[in-house]
Amino acid sequence: MTGLGACAVLAAGLWQAGHALAATTELIVVDRNSGLAIYGFDPVAYFTDSKAKTGNEDLEFNYAGAAWRFSNEGNRTAFEKDPDVYMPQFGGYDPVAVSEGVARPGHPEFFAIHKQRLFLFYSAEARQAFEADPDGKAMRADANWPAVSKTLGP
Question: Record's NCBIfam families (predicted)?
Fold first, then answer.
């Protein structure tokens, strides 16, 4: 199995282990066991490589109560300079669910970049629903996020 294949299997295994791994009481989706944001995937790589890439444990940066991992030094530096540009919208919660008033953790393999913003989705179906009306879904999610986020934080 290639390194990429092993990463995909690992990511799928983490995801299938259930939502117990995803903090649902935090503003950012964080693995409760490791403290990793978005399951250790590199948030900058979505923009630079147009794909989900796992980060390296040697290239971590702590921000907003979570450990963020990066696939290279340049990506970590870019994130350190302006994390809000690269962080997933709604803390990594699925914008389709947020648009419906629900916080559902997104999966790092199901993503879209829309208007220079990163969105993570719970499933391929949720991503398809978003892509059918990205402006409408994003606008409804933006409107609902203040109320939804109040249900997450302590």
Answer: YHS_seleno_dom (NF041384)
